[in-house]
Amino acid sequence: MPTGSFTLKLTPQEYKSLVETFYLGKWIAEEETDDIQLSNLEQLEQKLLTCSGAKVGNEFVDYDKEEDYYFLSEELEDKLMEQIDNYDESQFWENLVSRLTMRDLHLKYSEKELEDMPEDKGMKTLEEIQKEYFDEFEENDVDNLKLVKLRKV
Predict the structure, then answer these.
(1) What is the Cα–Cα distance from 70 to 63, expressed in whole angstroms?
(2) Can you give the pTM of this predicted structure?
(3) pLDDT interval class at 153 (50, 70, 90)
């Protein structure tokens, strides 16, 4: 790891991309970060946003003079939150289908059968089950999804 400080030369668009990427990464990190790490991220964010020139006017970073605090413009934050929402929505369906598919595979086949199954047959079976779920959810969302408690034998 380099020691000391260094200079990074970026175009305005590259700087904006860096700010956006940092924001998205920080959003994810906040879910799994302790207070000390979060404080470090917030300090780093302030350093990054300080470079924006927001004190003299900037389209995507705002500055609160009283608090001496930089933050993303409402417009940019809304854009990034929309990206996060779209990502969350996509991941919800991917994870749901993946879990249901694996459950169904294990209900239909024993561990031994799955281990002995030729890879191409296993992939074909997996893809068929996934397609059924994706088609169902695309057509009906979760309207037909019901929780059925199975009796343990």
Answers:
(1) 5
(2) 0.76
(3) low
